[in-house]
Each structure stands twice: as C-alpha cells, then as structure tokens.
Amino acid sequence: MIKKNKSVKKPKVAAVSGGFDPIHIGHVRMFKEAKKLGDKLVVILNNDNWLKLKKGCVFMPQNQRKEILEAFRDVDRVVLTKHKPGTKDISIGKALAEIKPDIFAKGGDRHVKNIPTIEAAVCEKIGCKIINNVGYGGKVQSSSWLLTKYADKINGRKLKKSK
C-alpha cells in the first residue's frame, strides 16, 4: 500500500494594524478588503501606551477595543502590541516579526512614502508583501476627525443625559 503525501497548505495570513480608537467605517472597509487578500486576518491593535504616546490620550481602553475587533466576522485574531509606557518606538515591527504575515495591508492613509522604516525592514526580512491603500475610497474617515468633530459639537453645550 502506497501512502500519498498530503501536504497541508499553510493558510495565507494578512495583517492590518491601528489604534482603532474609535473604530469607524474606514476600518470596517479595510478589514473586508484585507480579508480578501488572505485566508486569515490578524489585526495588530496598538495598546494604550502607544495611543498615549502618539495621540496624547486614550478614548477607549485597549481591552474594549480588542473585544469589539474580535466581534467582526472578517477578523480571525487580534494581537495587542507590547509597547511600554514612555517608549520611543511606536512602530509595530516587533508584532509583525512575531506574527510573520504573508501580507501587511495598510489603510487609506498609507502609501510607499509614509511606511515606517522599521515596518518596511521587518516585512522585507520575513518576506511579507506590503499592500497600501486597502479598503475602498482611500482615507474616508479618521478616529481623530470623529473625536474632534464631536468635541467641537459639544464644546460649550451641556450634553443631555441618557435615559
């Protein structure tokens, strides 16, 4: 009896990253399009320390953002970054090196000229293809835009209490 060598095909992994604080329609579109690039979609979620360094504050705590992301049908796994308080390195190079995705899908605000050097170097080292402007419509929304717009609307006015 001859045994057939059944090679198991390794699933193609696509990864995206962001703070997702708060999540918006541009993120949803990016997840849908990124999932089409691979068999599995891993979301690299920037932790609270990263947000404090990059944005100055956190709107939603990392555990809540992680739980929301895990609820999306297109998302197979969420990996929280390990940035320490006061870190100087705000890249997600370490997370990419650990996950070793086949594809790193960047959203509508990214193009060749603004990919962090560390991330590009890690992708080259692990053989990960970077695809920019994933999600249709380019940069259609921004978490910062949403928060600023909301703050502008309520500035000087009292919020109505929810019933």
Strand content: 5-15%
Q: In order across it, which strands form the biggest sheet?
A: 3-2-1-4-5
Fraction of helical residues: 25-40%
Identify the CATH homologous superfamily. HUPs
CATH class: Alpha Beta
Separate helix tally? 6
Query: Cα-atom Rg, whole angstroms?
Result: 18 Å
What does this structure look like?
By secondary structure, this protein is α/β, with parallel strands linked by helices. It has a single domain, classed as HUPs (Rossmann fold, 3-Layer(aba) Sandwich), CATH 3.40.50.620. 35% of the residues lie in helices and 13% in strands. The chain is globular and about 70 Å long. It starts with 12 loop residues before the first strand and ends in a 9-residue tail after the last helix. Residues 17-112 form the Cytidyltransferase-like domain. Keywords: Nucleotidyltransferase, Transferase. It comes from Candidatus Wolfebacteria bacterium RBG_13_41_7.
Which key features would you list for this structure?
alpha/beta; Rossmann fold; 35% helix; single chain
What is the strand and helix layout of this fold?
Elements (H helix, E strand, L loop, with lengths): L12 E6 L6 H11 L4 E6 L2 H8 L6 H9 L6 E4 L12 H7 L3 E3 L11 H10 L2 E3 L11 H12 L9
Parallel strand pairs: 1-2, 1-4, 2-3, 4-5
Helix pairs in contact: 4-5
